[in-house]
Amino acid sequence: MRLRLRTPHTTALLTGLTALAAALAVPPTTGTPAAQAATGVRGAASGDCAAGQLCLWPAAGFGGKRRTYELSDTDIESCIPLPKGGTAAALANRTGRPVTTYQSAECAETAEFDTYPGAGTWVPRSPYQVRAFKVWER
């Protein structure tokens, strides 16, 4: 039996393959809110949001004072405007139901809006200032 030592080329190749495998194994934490919602990715610096809650933060990256909503005190399929002058720039949907966020405080579909699944969606940067939302039946 003959024993072979690794050459510098073999070591470099193995290092590159290991780095590639690690990069492919971890989903990206950046991208559009829809991409983050589809993958369920949440970044290491994400804010805390308990199961059953919709959490909204005024600053991107889950910054500022968190505002939480629960199904027990939220009308299903009704437009819920944020308090006057309030906006959200980051959100987490852990309600178990789809939630649509709106740029319009009246939930008007003439402005920007997006729907996020309720299985645990973390959005560190909304593409617009959220001023209202609706929680859907399913």
Sequence-ordered SSE layout with sheet pairings:
Elements: H1 8-25, H2 33-39, E1 53-57, E2 67-70, E3 80-81, E4 90-93, E5 99-102, E6 113-116, E7 121-123, E8 132-135
The CATH class is Mainly Beta
Radius of gyration: 21 Å
Share of helix, binned = 10-25%
CATH architecture: Sandwich
The neighbouring-strand order within the major sheet is 2-1-4-7
Mean pLDDT: 77
Order of helices and strands: HHEEEEEEEE
Please name the CATH topology: Gamma-B Crystallin, domain 1
For the record, give the distance between the C-alpha atoms at the N and C termini, rounded to a whole number. 65 Å
How would you sum up the global shape?
globular
Q: Structural class, judged by helices and strands?
A: alpha+beta
Count of separate DSSP helical elements: 2
Count of domains: 1
Major β-sheet, in short? Answer: 4 strands, antiparallel
| CATH homologous superfamily classification | Crystallins
Count of DSSP E strands?
8
Strand content bin: 15-25%
Q: Uncertain segments of ≥5 residues (pLDDT<50)?
A: 1-7, 9-45
